[in-house]
Specification:
Elements: H1 2-42, H2 46-61, H3 63-69, H4 75-95, H5 100-127, H6 134-162, H7 167-187, H8 207-234, H9 239-267, H10 269-293, H11 297-313, H12 317-327, H13 334-349, H14 352-363, H15 365-383, H16 388-401
Helix pairs in contact: 1-6, 1-7, 1-9, 2-5, 2-8, 2-13, 2-14, 3-13, 4-5, 4-7, 5-13, 6-9, 8-11, 8-12, 8-13, 8-14, 8-15, 9-10, 9-11, 10-11, 10-15, 14-15
Amino acid sequence: MEVNQEARIKRDFFLFMLAGVFMGLYSGLYDPSFNNYLNDTFHISEVARGGLEFPREMPGFLVVFTTGLLIFLPDVRIALVAGLVLSLGLFGQGLLSPTFSWVVIWMITWSIGSHLYMPLESSIGVSLSKPAEVGKRLGQLGAVKTAASVLGFLLVWVGFRYLHMTYKLIFTLAGLSVLAACVCLLMMQPRKSTVKRQRFLFKRKYLLFYWLNVLFGARKQVFLTFGPWVLIKIFHQPATTFALLGIVGTIAGIAFRALLGKAIDKFGERTVITWESGMLVIVCLCYGFARDIGAGSLAIWLVFGSYIADQLLFACNMARATYLNKIVDSPDDMTPTLSMGVTIDHLVSMTVPFFGGLVWTKFGFQYVFLLAAAIALLNLLAALRINVHKVAAATVQSSTGA
């Protein structure tokens, strides 16, 4: 029986890795294209670009409720639903968007699926891992997904540079990739919970995890929105540049994610998130003041380096998931707590881009990244409060007393 269980877990882990391949391919197609699509097709301003993040990120804020509505399903089946909604949004953006209003509608549809899938990716990965190898397993999943996105970036670069590809075709291919991931998820055997799972979960014990998500949400949205916008508006870079940067960052990320997973297991989440925060301060200053630090080509290369470094540092979010895994009262707390974390992070990330756009317009883009550097310092202070051993000891003491 135990042998069959182990074989099933290995099979499901392989299928989940394969789903990660297709999700990575979709990401490599969609991520380097979306901002240029908005700029090239609709020529929107900085304030409009920042304001667009509110409806785009609203499903992330609501993810705890959408997850709650589907909590009667196992995690793998919720992920399947998320993938189907995500692919519908991609097909809509590619094939059914004659006006900007329709782009917004399909973008929201895509966002619902994307944000619903987000916490489940970590939760399912943790459930398929041995306790001592959670960081390693998440690192492997991240590395495979990152490797697959290289192909997507290459298709964007070759397609726009030599084959006269359209954004419509790129988004359609991305949608087909997500459907392929859905087939893999459908073939996985769902894990039945032995405990009745809660639709909504908020515990005082997880306050530091929630606070880390607030800071991650603010930091994430500054870079997702205004990092590419600096390259587009200040340095006038096309979609092919983002594809090349994606390729470089992705190839570097294959090794980086695998090493990061091992580093989390060996050094702990506190050390990893502290280093991430320090590096982010440097990235922010390079983004904001590259033209003051170096003239001409040196400035653009500093921004290129910042873009790639930030892309790599996003992987450090797995340290927040492994930290939560070490302090949860029950494995069944993982998905609802990760979902609550996504909701909390999006409460911030919905509003940050709009105000960032106003700051850019009134004071200059440099001040957007000065504020981001301040957020990175707050993240560093929060990381220093992580004490997994103390929490674990308190949990054991409480259990013994009970």
